[in-house]
Specification:
Helices cover about 15% and strands about 35% of the residues. It is mainly beta. The strands form 9 sheets. Strands 5, 6, 9, 10, 26, 27, 28, 29, 30, 31 and 32 form an 11-stranded antiparallel sheet that branches. The chain has a 6-stranded antiparallel sheet with strand order 13-14-15-16-17-18, with no helix packed on it. Strands 19-22-11-25 form a 4-stranded mixed sheet, with no helix packed on it.
């Protein structure tokens, strides 16, 4: 009996050394989770149970369980390196065969798909529609789209403007009227320039000239590419835009913006916005306008004046914002904490091109390790639940980083010594039993 007990102890100690050795071997493996050998004692028993004086029959390996504790996140500088800070697993698909991993060492294959290091499995996530909206719910192979970003014509311009209330008045009516002329600085108080774009991504300059015509009253003249945006063909008013009038109250707040209405001269358009509804992109040569084949935004360009004030401070404008842009070529990729992949373009725009999905399991210990720092779903693990990072209990994505192995080398070296001692002690049990057997034989 003692021989069997000692042999079971040797076997158990050997397995403990195997597990410890495997942990030590993978101390530098990204996403690796350390294992622990778990043992249980063995007793002989009948259907009626075991007696109170039954001696154990040794030990056996009950389970090798992996410890899914968090590993350190280290920076690598590679944008496609992703570490999970928290719970969850990356989902990989190899022609429909799904596996799960914590190792975020990803590459791009020749078709643009994000894959593991040996290019055999593709990273799974959520795709996007034409507008860059994430399509949650259906997993797909994540792919980096390197196509150009199509241009967008400008539809709105917004800025914050202050007009100096103490600026001198420029009289524009009567016998001594000063006629507005964009080429003469003395005919206006201040000018502002804003780039706007047509449907082909061509850039145009929109100039706004403000003229203080009386106390609490200003006029605004708007030119695009140096011409009246409403003029076409050989119209003599190519540089004679219609002015809008800004009215302020005694506290310097804008009360209204009045723009002449060509369709109804008796009823001007009252709004806090200016609208370029008839602007057509093109060039002017010798006083003749020629379209360039592009078009302005079909809805026109709305210029918000709602944030305009008249205080005793310099006439100035904040940096304007406008929603148009030229064609853009992809320059780099960024990934945020939610796993959303953003393509950044040369026109200073960015667009979501996909989102990493994380899988979670009711029982992580039930996953089956299949090598390559990967696991497979089993009946014991339960079915996976998929969602975006930072959703519920799922962790966040750290781009340019990797999760290191969670192996504690100091603990493993101590376990190595303990395993060696256990092996020697069990070997001593067999040696002692052998000595006793020799003594018995010598007595006969």
């Amino acid at each position: 009996m003692s021989f069997n007990i000692g042999l079971s102890g040797l076997y158990a100690a050997n397995k403990q050394l195997d597990v410890t050795g495997n942990n030590i071997a993978n101390v530098a493996t990204a996403g690796f989770k350390s294992s622990r050998a778990e043992f249980e004692d063995v007793y002989s028993a009948t259907r009626l149970g075991s007696g109170s004086k039954v001696i154990g029959n040794g030990v056996r390996l009950a389970n090798v369980s992996q410890q899914f504790t968090q590993g350190d996140i280290s920076n690598t500088g590679n944008v496609l390196d992703m570490g999970i800070n928290g719970s969850g697993f990356f989902t990989m698909s190899n022609n429909g065969s799904v596996s799960y991993t914590r190792a975020g060492t990803f590459k791009v294959d020749n078709a643009g798909y994000i894959t593991n290091t040996d290019y055999t499995s593709r990273l799974q996530g959520y795709g996007v529609d034409a507008n860059g909206k994430i399509l949650n719910g259906v997993l797909t192979d994540l792919k980096i789209d390197t196509s150009n970003l199509a241009p967008k014509s400008t539809s709105s311009v917004t800025s914050t403007i202050n007009l100096n209330s103490s600026a001198p008045v420029i009289v524009d009516t009567g016998a001594n009227a000063v006629k507005f002329d964009p080429s003469k600085a003395e005919t206006y108080t201040k000018s502002f320039s804003t780039p706007i774009y047509d449907t082909q991504g061509n850039s145009h300059v929109m100039d706004q000239y403000v003229v203080k015509t009386s106390d609490n009253t200003w006029k605004v003249y708007t030119l695009v590419d140096g011409r009246n945006p409403d003029a076409t063909g050989s119209d003599p008013t190519l540089t004679a835009p219609t002015a809008s009038t800004l009215s302020f109250d005694s506290s310097g707040k804008l009360t209204q913006v009045s723009t002449p209405n060509p369709a109804d001269p008796a009823n001007p358009i009252i709004s806090s916005d200016l609208t370029l509804s008839n602007w057509k992109p093109g060039t002017v040569t010798n006083g003749v306008f020629t379209p360039n084949g592009a078009a302005a935004n079909p809805a026109g360009v709305t210029i918000s004046m709602a944030k305009t004030t008249q205080y005793n401070a310099d006439t100035a404008r904040s940096i304007p914002t406008q929603d148009g842009y030229a064609t853009g070529q992809i320059t780099n990729l960024t990934i945020d904490g939610t796993g959303t992949l953003f393509a950044n373009f040369s026109n200073n725009q960015s667009k979501a091109i996909g989102q990493v999905a994380l899988a979670s399991f009711t029982n992580e210990q039930g996953l089956q390790a299949v090598g390559g720092t990967s696991w497979k779903e089993t009946f014991a693990s339960g079915i996976p639940g998929y969602d975006a990072p930072e959703t519920g209990t799922l962790g966040s994505i750290a781009s340019n980083s990797l999760e290191e192995s969670n192996v504690n080398l100091t603990n493993e070296l101590v376990d190595l010594i303990k395993g060696q001692s256990n092996y020697q002690a069990n070997a001593k049990t067999i040696s002692t039993q052998s000595t006793i057997m020799q003594t018995i034989i010598q007595m006969t």
